[in-house]
Amino acid sequence: MDKIDLLTCIPDPLSIEEDVFEFWVTGYTVEHTVENRLKTDITIGSYDRVVVDIDTRDQFQTFELLEGLLKKPQSFRPSPVANVPNGGDNLIQLYYSLDPEVARELVGKGRKITAKFRKDLDSIYEKTGIPLKSVLRQYDNIRRIYREVDEKEGKVAVNIQRYYGLSQSLCQQYAAIIFLLDNRIDVSPRKLPSLRYPALVKCVTVIMSEWGDGVSDMGVDRSFLKELHSLKDRISDAVLQTVFSHVNEVMRVAHPEFPKSLCEYDCIVLEYCSLIPLQYMLYYTLYTIQHY
Asked: Is the CB of residue 183 less than 8 Å from the CB of residue 147?
């Protein structure tokens, strides 16, 4: 039997530094990352700048190669090609992280995220100061997850966790964003300037849980919406102001250290949503569910 000579090559696993990965995810340049590593990382502070620059560029190139796997987390875990702590879970959470300012702008105009929407991302970068590369990443992630879970049975947050393995907080955020986009609900900062992103997510989570159509938490009971529109026509600004004044008074008596203006502690009010009447969230919903 003829003998066959084979040449095998067993490379070392890729070594990934999470702090450098975070700079890459945030959209910073190699130069910016090198400057920060030299200033903040005492383990490399004594190295020559050229060495740190080469290492950083190598890391960035590695992240570009791994990005295809990060877009499909089930393929990334566990990764035999990279030496990553926690099986790469931290990298996945970082890659799918959301900046509140960016997420608020992306869902703000009551329209679905399409390929044409990409041309408007420059304005979000200019308004928020978040690097454009990071804005593009968050836009692409939202669009990808939306297409993955759209039309699937079951709760959106559960499906997101099943396919992407994200934390509970991220799953709730993406579920709320997808609900707003799918229903084209206008929650733009222009209409609701005092509604901050954390409060928006909590408000939408309650609506998805309590006002569903019984089939999916992506839909809202249409008969309920008709009643809601009828109620909207009957509620005057004076009535809404009365509700606000009542909630303000309750909060001021219970917590005198809080500021007087309700808009300054939206998040705190929503924490008390089980104790305070639903009018607070109705105030937002009455003005946002416009297309039914």
From this structure: no
